[in-house]
Amino acid sequence: YYESREYNKAIREIMALTDKANKYIDEKAPWVIAKEEGKEAELQAVCSMGIELFRVLMSYLKPVLPKLAERAEAFLQAELRWDNIHQPLLGHTLAPFKALFSRLEKKQIDAVVEETKGLFAAANKAAEKTEAKPTALSAVEPIAETITIDDFAKLDMRVAKVLKCEAVPESNKLLRFELDLGDHTRQVFSGIKAAYNKPEELEGRFVIMVANLAPRKMKFGVSEGMILSAGTGGSDLFLLSADSGVTAGMQVK
């Protein structure tokens, strides 16, 4: 994909592999093993595999995130190269870990919002005086009509785990999902077939869905909700997901 400059497809493949890596760590739960006596060897094996998965994924991301890759190389004490991607770091010493990203706290975001309120107000006034001229190059859709917080509160969005995902043979657009919402499962049809030609690779991934949408009877069965994705449509669609640590059925707030 990199050679053909299909970067969106490359990132999609890398994210699918990242989901599998997260699934491995979640299932092995090294934080639990660390509390059990006599399992030091198992803990080291799981952590070593986690480091290897991290190294491989960062090697894949290096062409598009070079600065992040540099910080990863400093931690791994090794250069990330395509020609050694299959050579594990055996008997290798790592540098002390430093977070690759700084987490933004809510109060920091609130402060930025307050600082920019005046800028947005000025921009809105200017926009009212000047008629916008749409261009063919613009890929960003205009913001929809304003709703109230009460309107938004009617939506019940949940984290759902993909138990099964398969193409609907009779449809050119639909994938059929079997989703775990913690206390029950649901069937949802989603028109993202063109964006995910290997639907089975989505199994085990966490997605975001609108859980209180009225069921819709379709030719192929009943769709019990809506899975959220972003993009312009067709092959340019990307499923929304959540950070590791979420559980099936967790409410999005």
Q: And the CATH topology of the domain at 149-239?
A: OB fold (Dihydrolipoamide Acetyltransferase, E2P)
Mean pLDDT: 85
The helix/strand series, from N terminus to C terminus, equals HHHHHHEEEEEEEEE
Shape: globular
Low-pLDDT parts are: 133-138
Explain this structure.
The chain is of the alpha+beta class. Among the domains are: 7-84, Isoleucyl-tRNA Synthetase, Domain 1 (Orthogonal Bundle); 149-239, Nucleic acid-binding proteins (OB fold (Dihydrolipoamide Acetyltransferase, E2P)), CATH 2.40.50. It contains 6 helices and 9 strands, in the order H-H-H-H-H-H-E-E-E-E-E-E-E-E-E. A hairpin with a 7-residue loop joins strand 1 and strand 2 (175-180). Helix 1 packs antiparallel against helix 3 and helix 3 (40-61) runs antiparallel to helix 4 (66-76). The relative contact order is 0.10. Residues 133-138 have low confidence and may be disordered.
What are the key terms here?
253 residues; alpha+beta; 5-stranded antiparallel β-sheet; two-stranded antiparallel sheet; 18% strand; globular
SSE topology sketch:
Elements: H1 7-28, H2 30-33, H3 40-61, H4 66-76, H5 106-129, H6 149-153, E1 157-167, E2 175-180, E3 185-190, E4 206-210, E5 216-218, E6 221-223, E7 226-227, E8 229-233, E9 236-239
Antiparallel strand pairs: 1-2, 1-4, 2-3, 4-7, 5-6, 8-9
In short:
35% of the residues lie in helices and 18% in strands.
